[in-house]
Amino acid sequence: MITRRNIALGGVAFAAIAATGVLALRWRGGGADAATETFEVNHTPEEWQKLLTPEQYSVLRQEDTERPFTSPLNHEKRKGTFVCAGCDLPLFVSETKFDSGTGWPSFYAPIEGATRTSQDWSFGMQRDEVHCRRCGGHLGHVFNDGPKPTGLRYCMNGVSLKFVAA
């Protein structure tokens, strides 16, 4: 028999299940791999906050994502190298940059040995997080929908990079 009490209890149960689902979708598994690695450049959170801008700290150290279409590096077309904003390690050369239309600087390949990847389970899906191999800073993600020759799209947060003109 359906009563107002049963409907109310069902609504409470549904809300609890939905809240649990939202929390599960936001759980990050990617940072755990990077957190257990050893890096050449290490700083305390307080030291990183002094070295980086608030936006850089949020992305590089807390795995945040900058808003799309906000990075000046989207329009960078000069020859040069894109380096880690946390430790200045060269990560990408300008010849591998392309306009993906996604709103973030994109590359089809990093400089060999410059990046590492780990699994990221945020938002309820598995993605490959890209981080700097020297300081562990979060750079972005890599996807299998890029151009030739690799077929990869390294979708990077512009705030995690600095450009050094050739």
Strands ordered across the widest β-sheet = 3-4-8-7-6-5
CATH class: Mainly Beta
CATH topology: Metal Binding Protein, Guanine Nucleotide Exchange Factor, Chain A
Poorly predicted runs of 5 or more residues: 8-33
How would you classify the helix and strand content by structural class? alpha+beta
The amount of helix comes to 25-40%
What is the N-to-C succession of helices and strands? HHHHEEEEEEEEE
Number of helices, counting only DSSP H or I runs of 4 residues or more: 4
In CATH, what is the homologous superfamily? Peptide methionine sulfoxide reductase
Morphology call: globular
Averaged pLDDT: 84
How many structural domains can be distinguished in the coordinates?
Answer: 1
Q: Name the quaternary structure.
A: single chain
Radius of gyration: 20 Å
Architecture, CATH level 2? Beta Complex
Q: What is the number of beta strands?
A: 9
Strand % is 15-25%
Describe the main β-sheet briefly. 6 strands, antiparallel
Distance between the termini: 76 Å
